[in-house]
Structure formats: C-alpha cells, structure tokens
## 1
Amino acid sequence: MSSEDRAPRGVAVVAIALFSIGGEAAAIAQTGVEQVVVTGRLEEDLPLDLQQYGTRVDTVPATEIRNGGYVDVAQSLQVLVPGLYISPKNGPFDYVDVSLQGSRTQDVLWLVDGVRINNRLYGGTTPLDTLPASMVERIVVLEGPEALFYGTQGVAGAIDVITKSFSTTPDGAVAAGGDTNRSRHFDGYFRDTLAGQQFVVYASSDHSLGFQPFRDQDYQPSSTDRHRSYDLRTIGVKDGVDLTKTLRLSAEY
C-alpha cells in the first residue's frame, strides 16, 4: 500500500502511576482496625500479578526481540507467542487480522503501557506500525477473559506492549537493516534524566518498493490494483516526572 493511501496515524498515552498510599483510618478504629493501607499499581503490571493465580500469560522480553533481529512488534509476536495469529491485510504497516486461540480480531484488546488504544469500532487498530522493536521493553499477552479488566473488548485476551522505561543514566541504541527487495529499515532511541525530567525519544524509518509476485505484463487492468510500496517514518517521545515519592505522571506520543 502506497504512502498516499494512508493518513498519518499516532498513539497518545497518558498514565498516572500510583505506587502506594498509606494512612490511618481513625473512623473505623472502633472495629479493631488500627491502620488501613491502600496500594495502587500500574495496569501494565496486572498480567504479571494474575499469572501467580493460574492465568496464562506469555511474556516476550526485550532480549528475545533483540536477539531475534525483529524490526517491529508484529514480527516478534508472530514468532514468539504460541496461539497468536497475525496477518497484515495488505503487507507491512497496514491493518491486521488477529486471532488469539481462535478468536475474532475485535475480541483482542491492544494496550500500550497498560492504556487501551483500540475498541470494537476500530478492532484492527494496533501499535504494530507505530512502535519500533528497539522501543519495546517487553510484550505481555494475557489470554482468556481475565483481560476484561481492561475493557469489554478483551474477551479473548489482551496484548500489552510495554515501552522502554525511564533511566537515570544516558542510554540508547541504533539499528539498521535491509533486504533483496530494496527495502531498508532504521530505528533508534535515547533516554536520560535531565534536571529531574525523565524522557525517552525514538524514531524509525521504513521504505520498500514492495513485493510483486508476477511481471507487469501478467497483470490484467483493474480498478482495485494497488501498489505494495510503503514509506513510513515514525517519531515519538515518552516523558515522565515524579510529583512525589509515590506518584508519577507520564505521557507518550
């Protein structure tokens, strides 16, 4: 699919992380309770907690993505998660058909850092073409109806893409690749903390003329004929600030 056929797409994520809040509850002291402790967690950690109670959770760490040489989220999931079927409709960087343990596409919920980004109206909207593999910290696949915690669409399960966490020291990486179809890929990220402001910036570029299985003269004229080429560029930033020792505000675009 040519770049002219596609409108710019983006994902914006805002999250408030509440680590723990403790306080005394004098009002209920008469019942024998001297202290009440309320603990909150980021939704991105929920699948790992459910795993302790028998829920099936598949985790794809960054090391497996890096060692496998995968350039995007789709390639990582196709190879490393059993029971998950992903089929792009018109080649790379297009809407996809997804099946988790035989489910329908609209029954799989997609999340970025615990925040849902699709719904039943746009079931094929995924972060597969907006996040390069180098930006992924891990991918967590929560199978089964326990994923309904995130929303009604998670009947079959939820796929949570956890991006690179913040770092107090400078860190980054750059990757490049190509193939015999005259395709090329570049991506990279950098993260650091300056004056208490935490950030991660990343970018990627993909270009290809596409794969044509037959010669030009073997094709019959068609009004639905489309080029399989693509030229995609992605830039993004993840920013965070610790408001208190137990409260963090983060945003990603």
## 2
Amino acid sequence: MGETTLVNAQTLARRLGDPELRILDCRFELGDADAGAAAYAAGHLPGAQYVHLDRDLSGPRTPWSGATRYRNRRYSQQASAPSHRRHDRCDCLRRCGGMYAARAWWLLRWLGHERVAVLDGGLAAWRAARLPLTTAASVVAARSFVGHPAASACVSADEVAALLGREACLLVDARAAERYRGESSRSIRARATFPARATTPTS
C-alpha cells in the first residue's frame, strides 16, 4: 500500500496477515465508555487491536509540558503493545465520524510513526464489501516503538489566544456542529491553526 492518509477496504483486506500490518480498532461512545470494547468483542477486523479513548488515546489534564511528556510515554507504551515499529503499516478503523481513528492517526504521526492510514468508510465500508469480521482475540508479536513528539505540530492555548484576530492565521473548530454552536453540553476541543492562504475544505 502507498503512504496515503486513507486506505480502502479492498486494499486493506489484501494485506490481512501481513506481519508488517497493524490495525487499531478505535470505536468509542462518549456516553458509554465500555461500548467500544463491547462492539470490538462482538466483531472486528481480523488481527485488529482495540485502543480505548480514555486509557490509550488520552492523557490527564496537566500543564502543557507535562502533558507532552505523559502522552509521549503513555502512547509509546500502548503502541508497543499492538507491536508497532516506525515502519510498520498501521491502519485505524474509522467510526463515529472518524474522530477517534483520526485521533489515533494524529498521535502516531505526531510521535514519528511514518506509515499510518485510516480505513476509508470505516466498518460500514468493510461490511458493505462483505469482508470478514471475527470475534477471535488478536495476538501479535511484541515490538518496541519509542515516540519522538514533533513539537512543531502542537500549539498551546496561550499561543492560540495570541493568534486570535490575526489575518495571517485561520482557526478551525473540528467539533460536531452542535458543539460548535454551543447546543451540546459535552464539549470537546479539537482546534488547529493554519496559514490563511491554505485551501479551505468544502466538505
């Protein structure tokens, strides 16, 4: 597979069993922290490893430098458990709008993993293609992965605040529309800054 951000179901299916492939199942429900693991147990892609939003893809709220150190250590440990190496191919199962798989994708790229893609269409696309699911436990050989965070990929809240109102930057709020409008009581901040000259997404 090429080094793309997305991989389609048929291409991924042809790689099942490849010793260099690692699949992360990122399903999660904000209202039920156990729902993702239960869904994984009920049926997942062959060889997929489950990663939990709270335990594996998040760190405690701490000052910026401490959070960076924690996430580096914690996610590097988790990445070693599903047996990633820097050059292993890692595909994240997309569901629930893709935000959790996108989170895993970003974390791996931030930590220096060079070969990461998200399954285009997620589990729905896999099922639509009539590809296999399994309830069997996934066991893969352990390998070591030590993350090296890219400092330039992150900005602090103070840095974002300093950019507000400047024409040189565009602030993008990636939350669901109802959260952006303040209509939902559950607020998740997922924001990034981009140069104003960058192409604005149309969808």
## 3
Amino acid sequence: MPARPGPYLVEIRWVANPLRGDKFEAAWLPAAEAALDYGATSWGFYRAADGLLDFTQHAVFPDKESWERYWYSDEIGAARAEAAGLYQVPLQPTFHYTVGQGVASGVSAGA
C-alpha cells in the first residue's frame, strides 16, 4: 500500500469472457455502485467501446481499510461468486493518490 495518506482512487480492470460482456455488465453494475455503501465518495464503471469485453471500475475511498471493508464484504464476495465465469481472473486492484484534477464548468456541448 502506498505510504501517502488517502483518499485513494482504486482501479480494477475486468476482462469479460467472450460472449459474456452484457451479462457481466448487468451482474457487476450493482456491486460497483455499492462502493458508496462502504465509504467511497465516488464510483464509476466503464465499458470499452471497442470490443466490449474490457471494463474498468473506479472508486474513491478515504483509506485502504474502507476499500477492504467493501471488497471483502459478504455482499461483494457473493457478487463475485455470482459473476464467476463471466470474467477472467486474477483481478489486481491498483491504488492511486491524487496529483491533480479538475472539472469543466460552464462549457456547452456545442462550444
């Protein structure tokens, strides 16, 4: 675990098994969103537009303990078991600390 204090962006890259992308998406979306129930301040679940088998899950947790409470919870363990066979293993979460970030405001889509 990094030596810097949180918060941390945790990233997991998932690869769905061929012909299983839609089923994996439906199965894992509620589990990705459940990160908020375990202390995450934000979450995202993204699917690659090309190939449709690569997924990226992001969540921002205040500390590693909150992440572990989520990842090793009965709820998320059961979700992983339910989705078994839909994705490839192993899964290697990576932790990132913020170096910089920004949000666009007041920009219209046509500008």
